Amino acid sequence: MSSSTTEFFAIAAGVITAVGVSTSAGAQSAPLSAQETDPNVMGWMQGFPPETDKIITQPDSVYFSFPRLRWSVCHLREFLPTEEISRGLGVPVQLNYPSPPDFAELQKQIDAVTFTPQNKDKEMTWEQSLHANYTDGILIIHKGVVVYERYFGCLEEDGKHAIMSMTKSITGLLAEILVVEGALDDAALVGDVIPEIADSAFATATVRQVMDMTTGVTFSEDYSDPNADIWLYSAAASPLPKPEGYIGPDGYWEYLQQVAPEGRHGDEFHYKTINSDMLGWIISRVSGKSVTELVSERLWRRMGVEQDAYQTVDGKGVPFAGGGITAGLRDLGRLGQLMLNEGVLNGQRLFPAEVVEKIRAGGDRSKFGDGFPTFGAGSYTSQWWVLHNDHGAYAARGVHGQTIYIDPKAEMVLVRLASFPQAQNGFIDPTSLPAYQAVAEFLLER
Q1: Hey, which residues are catalytic here?
Q2: 100-166+328-445: CATH number
Q3: Entry pTM
Q4: Cis ω on the peptide bond leading into residue 249 (within 30° of 0)?
């Protein structure tokens, strides 16, 4: 299976790992609609106690299968151990909103924006696209002002939602900050930074190759193969007690120490989540702080966020740097605005502008390949997706429809949290990407 289509949630082990999700029958056939699978309509975990068939528990292997995932994405902390990403004790910095009448009118106008999905002839409205993509939360900031905000399904304005592989982009942002500030040499070999990795294929890769996922490392994601690497990774990362007789690696970092080579470093982009966890180890080693501490110190405590976030951990307490964060919608909007402003938020510079300049420039497009037809001729760098379109857009992306989409030309930040039945962005992009572009064009014309 193409690595571009996955962000695996290892339901058999009860722990998020690499790059895919639910393979339930519901995800393979025509699913129920967003309205029909609203967790409040389905009745998941309602009542004292809930009805037996409405209980979603761990370690049952169904808790992240559709339609249960529509409840679970807002409740990961109830299934898995986590570490807090603290916002500190300061007062949140309020986002800017128009007057209530103007805000209502803007929402009405944006809902009516039309676009044509990829490879389709029939137009769709923005509001229709929200339901088509099983949106749980949507926020649009234009020129520093919130012009659109809605919540659906399991998500309320004071709730939090799993952001899946958008976590990678936060990990990559921290790494790029350390590079620009001179604390991390992206030309260094991984083995020189992490001596414990000496026997792994990662040892001879550069830090930059890990950041851009151009490493030549073995990582199979063939879910039909019970011996595929993805299942071994899942077993290693599981925070649950290892079964009797288990002899494999214990935790993310032990797994990374035994990764075999495949191809040459630097030749091609291959979306493999083990790169993100390797990067998490690298930035923790050079900074002397865990990934959760770094996110808190460098971002959350300084952005004026409203809520603490949290991040899942393996059985040894190592944060899942490739997909473990759950956060609030507005706080993710603040992160997007920080990127749009090139490191400045609330009048304070949090990191050098060069950090964002390097990310916006993108990676080597010749290495991106043709495995992402719905995304287009883009690139990947520092764990961010770069569209190379006329608006200079770039994004953090995660399965089931998570995105922070930044459009510099339109001065727009769009955050969408969702629980689409299928994990792969290839099923969602044909509607989402034209919708984002249409809203950006609408805002440019205002």
Answers
A1: 165
A2: 3.40.710.10
A3: 0.93
A4: no
